[in-house]
Design brief:
single chain; Leucine-rich Repeat Variant; 2 domains
Length: 257
Amino acid sequence: MTTPFEELIPRALVSDTDDERWEIVAALHRRGDAGIFEAAARLCAGDLSGERELGADVLAQLGHRGDAKPFLDRSLPILREMARRECDPMVLRSVLFALGHLGDERALPEVLDSAGHFHNGVRHAAAWSLPNVMRADDAEAVAALVRISRETDDDENRDCATTGLAGLDADDTAIREALSARLDDTVVVVAAEAAYGLARRADRRAERVVRRYLAAPDDNDYTRSLMEWTAEELGDAELLSQVRASRVSVCAEPPAC
């Protein structure tokens, strides 16, 4: 028997663990009916920050099936208004992630405005969402991602913004130079994202990150995948072969005692 959403929502509001809370949110997403939308909309107007945060999290992917987003046009104005007036950084963070999941260009002004927020978590959410709501050649949005990619005191923000820049379809000097500036990043995955972004633009500067990786490969699957994709984008079969060989070499090492 399916638990009514009227019981699930209060349970999520008082949950002591993120896992339980997100399990409930995911269940509400899957059900995705009008009753849940109305309940989430009421939460978004709630007096308590926990209510508003949960409301935004539910609207983020309510009823999504592939490209189908049945509540997009009803959710978007609620979330945009929240982005304009919300004072609680954690609620605003959820609102921005929700706008990113909806992926509608009408949300660009609100997401862009939050890219300069004082709270690093809000800027992180803006960096994640911007590529989903911007035109690839939007100069203001690109500049916002570039600024966040330079946050040397926040690895997660820098990584998120670099990933966003790397994946844009646009190609100009500002994007290339921002990516180039991250090639020597102390966080390997940030440098790898930057290299992949340059390789997508046929920029051979990406190769030096692959060479650096080959000199000291690690067992992080995602980093290795980025290095493979970079070599593929560069069209360098020999380099790709070396990266793949490093995967075998790392995997063949005995476990540490």
